[in-house]
Amino acid sequence: TDERPRVLECRDVERRFGGLVAVTGVNMHIHQGEIFGLVGPNGSGKTTMTNAITGFFPPQKGQILLNGENITGMAPHKVARRGVARTFQNLALFNGMTVLDNILLGRHVHMKPSVFRTALYPWLARPEEIAHREVVEEVIDFMQLENVRDEPVDVIPLGLKKRVELARALVAEPSFLVLDEPMAGMNQEEKEYMARFILDAREERGVTVMLIEHHMDIITGICDRMMVLSYGEVIDTGIPKDVIADPRVIKAYLGG
Ligand code: ADP
């Protein structure tokens, strides 16, 4: 058995939308330092689980524990302040703003409103704003975005946009990072780059990662363990090698 602390634990989670049961009976846990894959065909409940965990759509049944503490029903900004950062399936960047300013927005969880305002206007900088800037600069360097830092975010290629999103999540200095399809729409080279950044974030920044993905091939290479959802229920959890060989998983993916 794995003795590492559990960063996340979900117990018997259920979320409905009207009459539709989006997920039910979901039990899962993620150990500190793991890269954990949440996989399943479209509509299987991956985003619903993400929204339940991050507080956007709390479950109607069951419990969510973060580092052993019950956070079920907690507001998203409070979950964020406890060290959870996420990216979104569809890019949530602000077009017209630069790469730098988009990344700076990720710092807001640590800022008082007044500090946040002046952080966008560096000529008003005070020492605490300078500290925020230092984190941002370090992450820009880590994510290799220095060449595009002053570009409007809408003009850069998709692969770089996804990197900006990851950078924005990292400047919050999270302990738990939830990535919703970080490689969607990327070409092979961009995917490999992104996989490397995720692995390095775990290695160098100590983050625990939950990675949502509907393509199996991408995820099996970088996950320690993975869980497969189908029609809102868990059909398997384990190491990638075993999960991809599970007949129930193969059937779910073939649409049988
Ligand atoms: P996935 O992320 O695996 O594609 P989702 O969690 O988005 O799956 O969807 C699971 C089910 O819940 C789908 O039937 C979807 O239509 C429904 N659903 C998800 N979010 C909402 C919502 N906000 N309102 C209504 N139905 C939703």
From TrEMBL:
<dbReference type="InterPro" id="IPR003439">
    <property type="entry name" value="ABC_transporter-like_ATP-bd"/>
</dbReference>
<dbReference type="InterPro" id="IPR032823">
    <property type="entry name" value="BCA_ABC_TP_C"/>
</dbReference>
<dbReference type="InterPro" id="IPR003593">
    <property type="entry name" value="AAA+_ATPase"/>
</dbReference>
<keyword id="KW-0813">Transport</keyword>
<keyword id="KW-0067">ATP-binding</keyword>
<dbReference type="Pfam" id="PF12399">
    <property type="entry name" value="BCA_ABC_TP_C"/>
</dbReference>
<keyword id="KW-1003">Cell membrane</keyword>
<dbReference type="GO" id="GO:0005524">
    <property type="term" value="F:ATP binding"/>
</dbReference>
<dbReference type="InterPro" id="IPR051120">
    <property type="entry name" value="ABC_AA/LPS_Transport"/>
</dbReference>
<dbReference type="InterPro" id="IPR027417">
    <property type="entry name" value="P-loop_NTPase"/>
</dbReference>
<dbReference type="Pfam" id="PF00005">
    <property type="entry name" value="ABC_tran"/>
</dbReference>
<keyword id="KW-0472">Membrane</keyword>
<protein>
    <submittedName>
        <fullName>ABC transporter ATP-binding protein</fullName>
    </submittedName>
</protein>
<keyword id="KW-0547">Nucleotide-binding</keyword>
<feature type="domain" description="ABC transporter">
    <location>
        <begin position="8"/>
        <end position="256"/>
    </location>
</feature>
